[in-house]
Structure to design on (396 residues):
């Protein structure tokens, strides 16, 4: 159709979002999160005075000659987040999703050093793109879709800073663990995930007003092996007991586990707990030597912001081996939870041990995996080996 709408330009700062669409003489209207913010014949709209680092959903429609609103487009984007203490480049990016009839478009901020991205839909590889955008025109109208955007770059591009102590630890453990693949240790992975509701529901004329009562989030680290050889040959503990399992949200075996409940009812609340699994050391004969439990003191949760319709949290994790000198298990997670059911979760961690993160709504009985990453080996716990960066958000 000659006058069919499409978003042509999108710009944002930390306080405004601007977009321009296909020129038409027809009247168009724009809603922001269900509220009318523009009606007229101009093919552009600038929304000012917005909150920094906040997600917004816009609906664009055109009035045809018969008096019907047609060519519906939904656009989910955000203002820039300029004030962030995170070392995670993904925390600064804006990921934009545009949906219309049988089409989903994704666009994300550029990451210096990444020249190509692999795109997956529902776990199946689609193609590799060189631009930081992708449009899928083979979309079912009545099925949900999950997109993976994956890229990597050399660690030198990150300009990451490390303490002299951690660099010394890294050199020491890498010298003891020569089997560690050098290329992998010097390559940072970036995973972006977008979960999108069916187009039928997103483009429905019925605006959703249901508030999500609460989320539960579980972050667990674990060692998949039953018994692990200590790469530190000078340690009195030649082996350590692992957790002997694969990914499992309900397993009682782990190095550490953090549970959060985020309730966004009339009185928003945040409840959390943290647990550390026992560390068990064995001698060179694989006989029991000693057991202890590491301190959880450096697992910290901060309620970064609590504004109307949103709660933001930051979780930092640093847990060591209580039996011997070794690198810590380090990770950082930040998340925004919105009353309308939207979430935006960002994480960074070392490439060891296994990391698994699950989410469920209050009325769900089963956990949904939102991040799972297998360990690359104990030597990858020592910085400055490359970190793993991930981010997941939804459009429902």
């Amino acid at each position: 159709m000659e006058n069919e709408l499409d978003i042509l330009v999108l710009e944002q700062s930390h306080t405004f979002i601007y977009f321009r669409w296909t020129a038409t003489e027809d009247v168009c209207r724009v809603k922001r999160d269900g509220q009318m913010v523009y009606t007229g014949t101009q093919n552009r709209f600038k929304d000012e005075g917005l909150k920094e680092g906040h997600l917004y959903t816009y609906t664009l429609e055109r009035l045809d000659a018969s008096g019907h609103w047609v060519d519906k487009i939904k656009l989910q984007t955000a203002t820039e987040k300029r004030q962030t203490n995170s070392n995670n480049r993904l925390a600064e990016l804006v990921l934009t999703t545009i949906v219309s009839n049988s089409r989903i478009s994704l666009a994300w901020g550029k990451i210096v050093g990444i020249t190509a991205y692999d795109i997956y839909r529902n776990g199946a590889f689609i193609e590799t793109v060189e631009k930081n955008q992708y449009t899928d025109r083979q979309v079912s109208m009545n099925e949900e879709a999950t997109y993976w955007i994956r890229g990597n770059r050399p660690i030198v591009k990150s300009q990451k800073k490390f303490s002299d102590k951690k660099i010394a630890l890294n050199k020491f453990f890498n010298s003891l663990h020569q089997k560690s693949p050098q290329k992998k240790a010097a390559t940072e992975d970036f995973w972006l995930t977008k979960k999108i509701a069916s187009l039928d529901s997103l483009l429905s004329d019925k605006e959703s007003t249901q508030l999500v009562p609460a989320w539960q989030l579980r972050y667990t680290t674990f060692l998949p092996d039953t018994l692990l050889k200590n790469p530190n040959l000078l340690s009195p503990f030649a082996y350590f007991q692992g957790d002997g399992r694969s990914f499992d949200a309900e397993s009682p075996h782990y190095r550490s586990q953090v549970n959060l409940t985020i309730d966004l009812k009339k009185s928003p609340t945040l409840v959390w707990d943290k647990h550390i699994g026992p560390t068990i050391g064995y001698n060179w004969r694989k006989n029991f030597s000693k057991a202890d439990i590491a301190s959880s003191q450096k697992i910290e949760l901060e309620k970064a912001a609590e504004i109307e319709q949103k709660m933001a949290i930051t979780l930092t994790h640093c847990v060591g081996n209580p039996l011997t000198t070794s690198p810590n298990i380090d990770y950082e997670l930040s998340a925004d939870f919105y009353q309308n059911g939207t979430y935006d979760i960002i994480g960074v961690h070392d490439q060891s041990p296994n990391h698994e993160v699950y989410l469920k709504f209050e009325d769900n009985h089963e956990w949904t995996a939102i991040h799972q990453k297998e360990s690359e080996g104990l030597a990858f716990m020592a910085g400055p080996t490359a970190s793993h960066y991930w981010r997941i958000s939804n459009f429902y």
About this structure: The two ends are 28 Å apart (CA to CA). Residues 160-180 have pLDDT under 50 and may be disordered. The first strand starts at residue 7 and ends at 12. Residues 184 and 386 are 8 Å apart (CA to CA).
